[in-house]
Specification:
about 375 residues; 3-stranded parallel beta sheet; 14 helices; binds magnesium ion
């Protein structure tokens, strides 16, 4: 798409070497990176012999991909905490960032914001809600903003009675009504932790106090978020639920590309409905607000223990309702470091993963 506007200089993948090989053929990048040496060998085997591409693996590879001299914009879309190091390396190297990896800004928001300012680079969100807020706020004065309304579909269990949460299976959580996503983020959407991470993400991205960010459930996913201003005006960003728009805008900003996206059928689509999230059935959202209020290393602990708990749920090791319990236990036993540097954050991340894992196997149950 738009080969006259964009060219791909480096590609970073995880374990899916087949898809990566297809993309190398399509885009002819200088560098391709996979998660480990074994995958690098596999990739070399399936590429046509004449292919000219350097292949690297692991964190060093990802950092190289993110800092390559010919790159001007880095799409940071790795899953989880692993995205932090390459994202920081890209900022350090003065690259513009299109950010989908919300975990990195949740973990190290203050550091990312500070470095972004120092380097004078653009950081544009890919997360649909933040893309919406970014578009609503563009050209406005920050001091005029009175509220951010972060919308969410409510996930697959929006209307499930509390008594039935215990029986939720991974397959139920992976069946999202409006968005098709990876496994981890699908579970995060089902627990509303995704919304919680997004609240913290918005706090750092838009540098606003946490208490003006309000989550509103809008199951039709037509309104992607709204911002209110002190004269009572509310600006919303609308569109069909499709990530294409937000992804394109993050790399074309401030230009808008002719994507050919359909306009919502306003006349026939039925009512748009709004409700408060139910914090009793979805305690993960409260935990995220708590972590955001406390700040320091606690958001990193929230994120790390969530990653561990979600993986354990996906592996059928714990019940769905245990996810918030594990996170809450881990947060409770963490001594928050205020104004953390990167090593404090990585240490908190490691500690939280270990604590959460021990909590799952019942070694440190209180
Ligand atoms: Mg989102």
């Amino acid at each position: 798409m738009f080969p006259d506007k964009f060219s791909v200089k480096s590609l970073a993948a995880g374990a899916n070497v087949k898809l990566l090989a297809d993309q190398i053929e399509m885009f002819s990048p200088e560098l391709a990176v996979v998660v480990d040496e074994r995958r690098a060998v596999e990739l070399k085997k399936i590429l046509p012999p004449k292919t000219r591409v350097e292949i690297m693996s692991g964190e060093e590879g990802y950092r190289t991909a993110a800092t390559l001299g010919s790159v001007d914009t880095v799409v940071s879309a790795m899953m989880g905490a692993a995205g932090l190091s390459p994202t920081l390396a890209a900022i350090e190297a003065g690259k513009n960032i299109a950010l989908a990896n919300k975990e990195s800004i949740v973990m190290a928001g203050e550091i990312i914001v500070k470095k972004t300012d120092e380097k004078g680079i653009n950081i544009v969100p890919i997360d649909s809600e933040h893309s919406a807020i970014f578009q609503c706020i563009s050209g406005q004065r920050k001091e005029d903003v009175t509220g951010i309304f972060l919308t969410g579909s409510g996930g697959p269990f929006l209307n499930l009675p509390a008594g039935e949460f215990k029986g939720i299976k991974p397959a139920d959580a992976l069946a999202h009504p409006t968005w098709h996503m990876g496994r981890k983020i699908s579970v995060d959407s089902a627990t509303l932790m995704n919304k919680g991470l997004e609240v913290i993400e918005a706090e750092f991205f838009f540098r606003v106090p946490l208490n003006i960010i309000k989550v509103i459930i809008q199951p039709q996913s037509i309104i992607h978020s709204m911002v209110s201003f002190r004269d009572g005006t509310i600006i919303a960003q609308l569109g069909i639920p499709d990530m294409k728009g937000a992804i394109a805008y993050s790399i074309s900003y401030p230009e808008r590309l002719p994507l050919g996206q359909p306009i919502p059928d306003f006349i026939n689509m039925g009512p748009l409905t709004f409700s408060d999230p139910d914090l009793n059935r979805f305690p993960c959202l409260s935990l995220a607000y708590e972590a955001g209020r406390e700040g320091g290393t606690l958001p990193a602990v929230l994120n790390a223990s969530n990653e561990i708990a979600v993986q354990a749920f996906l592996n059928n090791r714990i019940d769905f309702v245990k996810i918030p319990e594990i996170i809450s236990n881990t947060m409770e036993f963490h001594s928050t470091v205020k104004n953390p540097d990167l090593s404090d954050i990585m240490e908190a991340d490691t500690w939280a993963r270990e604590y959460a894992e021990n909590n799952i196997i019942g070694r440190n149950c209180s």
